[in-house]
Amino acid sequence: MAKPVSIQVWNPSGKYRVISTKPMPGTRWIRLLTDQDCRVEICTEKKTILSVEDILALLGDKCDGVIGQLTEDWGEVLFSALRRAGGTAFSNMAVGYNNVDVNAAAKYGVAVGNTPGVLTETTAELAASLSLAASRRIVEADQFMRAGLYDGWLPHLFVGNLLKGQTVGVIGAGRIGSAYARMMIEGFKMNLIYYDLYQATRLEKFVTAYGQFLKASGEQPVTWKRAATMEDVLREADVISLHPVLDKTTYHLINKDRLSIMKKDAILVNCSRGPVIDEAALVEHLKVNPMFRVGLDVFEDEPHMKPGLAEMKNAIVVPHIASASKWTREGMATLAALNVLGKIKGYPVWSDPNRIEVFLDENSPPPAACPSIVNAKQLGLPSSKL
Ligand SMILES: NC(=O)C1=CN([C@@H]2O[C@H](COP(=O)(O)OP(=O)(O)OC[C@H]3O[C@@H](n4cnc5c(N)ncnc54)[C@H](O)[C@@H]3O)[C@@H](O)[C@H]2O)C=CC1
Ligand SMILES: O=C(O)C(=O)CO
């Protein structure tokens, strides 16, 4: 990064130096920090992805906390430097934190925050959008139209898949996976098969109740099934959406062998993390199975795509925008700032990261708590009552 580093400073006389490695949407997050005696420094460098060296230059020799991004490599080097600068707080502006070495952070006594909940519906809505766009071939049809190729209605033109009555498969039925499942079941009357390490009890209850409602209305009821193996989902589902965390157990979860057991005209959606799919194997699969379609928000070597993917008509690709609604992005900034502020101020950790709405109410001050610290137990941080 070219020196001097380009920085925007708020409340220069603030006691605590908090750095945000990127400008973030909204202004509430800045106000919350400056009102509590923080000097906020926002890195405004044009470079999209900051390297470890860039961030080291930003940290300097006094820094109390950092709000970072999922594109950055937060490991031993950065956490030891943050600690040397007197810092004890870091928050990703993301719910996923596979870019963070949590053990290294704990080793240096640094709390690691994330931003759950505020992006659940927004992300699920993009997964639903990709599912629809893929099933009805919307992007291909749009390109055809703009290319001036449409010369009249034809019985075979862009025939796709009907979702109603088909089976939606969800792998990773946590917050986002469950929200997506509900959208597809309620919106399109799909049946559900899911695979997760844990039982999605609330989701099962929802599908049971909705099925009863449909039956009572004289319609075909929807059904659910918790699969014993991921392979069962891949074999049975017509549309499959991936929503697990990225860790050792989910790296290349979708590989050549598993692609081969999916239906030839299945739809695969990924709004989790790129490396959950072996992308090179996916490109080969798309080449030999033209009816198989994918909707991808994330990529194995982001920001790059594996060779061949961009040319595939049966792939829809968007640049990691699943959480990109104004409300969500402003909320993510707020939660990340409050994680850092709370740790600096010695506040306890909110006891339920699934109930963070109270931090997002613009009309009242947020609770004196860190909304979500993923290594709270490891660091022995106290927990707040709801
Ligand atoms: N594309 C984007 O912009 C976004 C991507 N994400 C990604 O989505 C992920 C999920 O977010 P949430 O739903 O909030 O998290 P969550 O923690 O509520 O859900 C993750 C689920 O994955 C399950 N899981 C873990 N290992 C598994 C395995 N081996 N097989 C099957 N299931 C497994 C967990 O049991 C859990 O239910 C994040 O970690 C992040 O990587 C999240 C938000 C936006
Ligand atoms: O929150 C996340 O994990 C993202 O991918 C960004 O929305």
UniProtKB/TrEMBL annotation:
<comment type="pathway">
    <text>Photosynthesis; photorespiration; 3-phospho-D-glycerate from glycine: step 3/4.</text>
</comment>
<keyword id="KW-0560">Oxidoreductase</keyword>
<dbReference type="GO" id="GO:0005777">
    <property type="term" value="C:peroxisome"/>
</dbReference>
<dbReference type="GO" id="GO:0005829">
    <property type="term" value="C:cytosol"/>
</dbReference>
<dbReference type="GO" id="GO:0009854">
    <property type="term" value="P:oxidative photosynthetic carbon pathway"/>
</dbReference>
<feature type="domain" description="D-isomer specific 2-hydroxyacid dehydrogenase NAD-binding">
    <location>
        <begin position="130"/>
        <end position="322"/>
    </location>
</feature>
<dbReference type="InterPro" id="IPR006140">
    <property type="entry name" value="D-isomer_DH_NAD-bd"/>
</dbReference>
<comment type="similarity">
    <text>Belongs to the D-isomer specific 2-hydroxyacid dehydrogenase family.</text>
</comment>
<dbReference type="GO" id="GO:0030267">
    <property type="term" value="F:glyoxylate reductase (NADPH) activity"/>
</dbReference>
<dbReference type="Pfam" id="PF00389">
    <property type="entry name" value="2-Hacid_dh"/>
</dbReference>
<dbReference type="InterPro" id="IPR006139">
    <property type="entry name" value="D-isomer_2_OHA_DH_cat_dom"/>
</dbReference>
<keyword id="KW-0323">Glycolate pathway</keyword>
<keyword id="KW-0520">NAD</keyword>
<dbReference type="InterPro" id="IPR050223">
    <property type="entry name" value="D-isomer_2-hydroxyacid_DH"/>
</dbReference>
<keyword id="KW-0576">Peroxisome</keyword>
<feature type="domain" description="D-isomer specific 2-hydroxyacid dehydrogenase catalytic">
    <location>
        <begin position="28"/>
        <end position="347"/>
    </location>
</feature>
<dbReference type="Pfam" id="PF02826">
    <property type="entry name" value="2-Hacid_dh_C"/>
</dbReference>
<protein>
    <recommendedName>
        <fullName>glycerate dehydrogenase</fullName>
        <ecNumber>1.1.1.29</ecNumber>
    </recommendedName>
</protein>
<dbReference type="GO" id="GO:0008465">
    <property type="term" value="F:hydroxypyruvate reductase (NADH) activity"/>
</dbReference>
<dbReference type="GO" id="GO:0051287">
    <property type="term" value="F:NAD binding"/>
</dbReference>
<dbReference type="InterPro" id="IPR036291">
    <property type="entry name" value="NAD(P)-bd_dom_sf"/>
</dbReference>
<dbReference type="InterPro" id="IPR029753">
    <property type="entry name" value="D-isomer_DH_CS"/>
</dbReference>
<dbReference type="InterPro" id="IPR029752">
    <property type="entry name" value="D-isomer_DH_CS1"/>
</dbReference>
